[in-house]
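Revision sheet: structure tokens.
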Amino acid sequence: MDIKVYRRIIISKIVLPVLLLSLIFSGCSSFNIFSKSEKPKASPEQLYEQASVEFKDNNYKKAQEIFLKLKEEYPLHELAVLAEIGIANSLYSDKEYAEAESAYSDFVSLHPTNENVPYALYQLGMCHYNEIGDIDRDQTETIKAIKEWEKLVARYPENQYSTIARKLILECKKKLAEHEFYVGRFYLKQKKYKAALARFETVMTDYANVGLADKVEPYINETKMKIAEEEKIKLKKEAEEAKNKNKSTTKKSLSGFFFWSKDSE
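Predicted:
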């Protein structure tokens, strides 16, 4: 065999495996670098956009998670403040009203001068508003809603949310008036006339501007008549009892007199 050809064969047998090994190892090294590298960290803007998309798609729990992530990873960023509102809105939209109330309340406490405070106060009232029961139920949530909206109107009288709040306050007061009227009629049926009258008069004095006066007034007149009749019957009964008591006392006195006269003979 030609010596030159032999050398080429030997070189190829040595060099090619070395090249292959070097390629393999360099490939593995590159793979390790990419596998170990982490995904780029999402920016505050990206996180806020992701959360907003989830919220619009009604994925409220997922939106809440991303808003919370933004708040935790970028606590000093201006979007972290908006993320707090986002968390509260996600809870509210998911009908977790107690948790939403707490979130809105924390926002107002932590950021008293923020431009979103009027909205947060309005939403605080809405958390209670959505929990209001029928007129035959306890109206604590109605009262709480009114209190929150009255704070809003007092602090921000010209704000757009105050305009809406005023209408809702009137609606809630009408609800309270109807509750008092309902309870008054219940007492009237039970013949507890004084308790019924107290409820009817509360409607007239405390809720004079809700439009129930014409409905309540006849009940007040009827209840007062019932009380007067009841008082008349009571006085008549007391008079008869007093009369019978006097008769009994007179009888005893006379029987004692006759007994004494007989003995004296």
